[in-house]
Amino acid sequence: MESEVKEFKNLGMTGGREDKSARPRMMMQMVNRVTHDFEEMIEGGGNHVDTKTLSGGAKINTIFHFRFPGYLNEGRLDEKELRKEIGFAIRNIHGVRSGLFTPDAAFEMTVKRQIETLAPPSMKCIQQVSTELHEVIMKCIDKIKNYPRLQAEIDNLVSGYLRECETSCRDQIQQLCEVELSYINTNHDDFIGFNSTAKDESVKDTPNAGGAESQVKSDCYYYSTL
What we know:
The protein has helices at residues 2-11, 22-43, 57-74, 79-94, 104-116, 119-141, 148-182, 192-204, 209-224; strands at 13-14, 17-18. By secondary structure, the chain is mainly α.
């Protein structure tokens, strides 16, 4: 402590006289030190590597690549449950009528429910990353705890910026989900309705067209038994 105070005084003195221009220079050196430490903890490397727990960039990487996919899988329906939901939706849309064609609304309702389940895991991921970034900042500014006013000011500025970024990120995720919910493209290659239609059209031109008809009857029987 005494050596740091002596160093602080020496930085502000030139030839035994106080050099006021050295104060901003010294403050910039400490700010640059915090910045350098933050970059090292996020990007990796440095002279001091934690060998007991994950922290900084390594923990953020774990959140994105391991925890986040797990959160998404928690809300995902299995194929059997998904088929059952689609079957109930088809029958409820038809009501007392026996519809000949499968309504797109049944698939849209099911897809929208799945899209809505993406928002909570995304928000949880944002919260965890934001928390880890704040912990990294606190570790970095702890090295300048001998200058509490500078430490408090850096904490206030950086924490405020992190909150702004977190809010902006949450808004973008929410807007993205709303965009996806606004229109369900049932003509997309990956959509089951498009694939089934394309398959039926190709089967019509083949001699084994009866196989497609039997498949349609099988699907109708499956939904009628739900």
